[in-house]
């Protein structure tokens, strides 16, 4: 059976989970505490990160490479457009969320509020959290601007870019750090994506000692 | 005319320059001091980063998305393999160098030794440099292990993965921070890639006040 080594509130793992679920590829989820790695884990992935997809007895790391690979071996439903300009746009936006949004928002807010607690690495730093919560406003506005012109983030079809963005926002939503009233277009977009069957497994995640915010699993939020 | 907004010793800009040159796509290079951005620059790229490729009157940011786009619109010579497993491997290795190598080596060594000086942001921190110079050994050994089994990093043909790796190593070589005698296979690989016509423009780079190390432009190093 295929396996995904992951942690519940990692946006990179979530992007892969959404991609697999949208394609109806079944995987067994294996929680992997990568901050306390077993020798076995490092043998599977010398980079020491999650996600790792075990498929056809190979171990594949790197979320973006995994998602594009899955899309190439299971092309339906397509998560990469056929048009070359549109493919560029999907890749640009995936990098936007996985690099820029991650550095400016996710790592600051989730890093301080969630990961320090789970990894037992001290107390949250309120200055860093504040910086993250200030930066998210700009990102929501940018998404709102895109979604005023397009049905989905990268164009008129749902793509990997939507999964990359939703993966980050859903982690922040778990701890209630997304102001859904800031941009109506973003809220509508998230409601659409959240109600997909592929999203269900994410909405069932529970971290021990850190229950999700009340609206987290609600389709009407 | 096509333009590339770049800075000379950025590995991300170099990956794009190598890709463009290998495909014989002419571009005008425009130096862009992104740490002191003009309003014009931020209009071209809200992420405030380099490289940005101006092509057909569009402004394209994000190095990996740019390179894959160039490879799709100018497929010859191919820098992405046709085989899906091989494409995965190229993308995995690009992420290895642009994320992991960058965080563990380039940002530490170049950040302290070069960028602090150029951006006038204080004095180099020797502890950080030491960490970077210690981490590079592991990366050279990993490359050596790959190249003992393959002609190029991702397989038997030269790909974007080789350009990603060479882009980082060439920046470090400018300040003489690569021990080419550590892994014979890596030295042979770098000699092959350094002697390509696509590499020439990189070897002519000169930072004001920071001349390159003597071996930097030598094909016999």
From TrEMBL, chains A, B:
Protein name: Glutathione S-transferase
Native species: Paenirhodobacter enshiensis
Keyword NADP: no
Record-linked PROSITE patterns: GST_CTER, GST_NTER
GO molecular function: glutathione transferase activity
Alphabetized UniProt keyword annotations: Transferase
SUPFAM superfamilies associated with the record: GST C-terminal domain-like, Thioredoxin-like
Keyword Transmembrane helix among UniProt keywords: no
Every GST C-terminal domain range: 83-215
InterPro entries xref list: Glutathione-S-Trfase_C-like, Glutathione-S-Trfase_C_sf, Glutathione_S-Trfase, Glutathione_S-Trfase_N, GST_C, Thioredoxin-like_sf
Family annotation (Pfam families): GST_C_3, GST_N_3
């Amino acid at each position: 059976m295929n396996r995904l080594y992951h942690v519940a509130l990692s946006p990179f793992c979530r992007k892969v989970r959404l991609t697999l679920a949208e394609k109806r590829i079944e995987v067994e989820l294996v929680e992997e505490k990568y901050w306390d790695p077993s020798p076995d884990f490092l043998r599977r992935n010398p980079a020491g990160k999650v996600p790792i997809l075990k498929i056809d007895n190979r171990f594949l790391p790197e979320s973006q490479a995994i998602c594009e690979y899955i899309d190439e071996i299971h092309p339906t439903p397509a998560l990469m457009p056929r048009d070359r300009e549109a493919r560029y746009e999907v890749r640009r936006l995936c990098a936007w969320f996985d690099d820029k949004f991650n550095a400016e928002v996710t790592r600051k807010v989730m890093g301080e509020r969630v990961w320090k607690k789970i990894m037992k690495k001290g107390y949250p730093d309120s200055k860093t959290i504040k910086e993250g919560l200030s930066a998210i406003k700009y990102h929501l506005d940018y998404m709102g601007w895109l979604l005023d012109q397009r049905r989905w983030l990268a164009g008129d079809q749902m793509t990997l870019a939507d999964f990359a963005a939703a993966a980050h926002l859903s982690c922040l939503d778990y701890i209630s750090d997304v102001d859904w009233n800031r941009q109506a277009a973003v809220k509508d977009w998230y409601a659409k994506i959240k109600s997909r069957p592929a999203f269900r497994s994410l909405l069932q995640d529970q971290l021990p000692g850190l229950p999700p915010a009340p609206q987290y699993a609600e389709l009407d939020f």
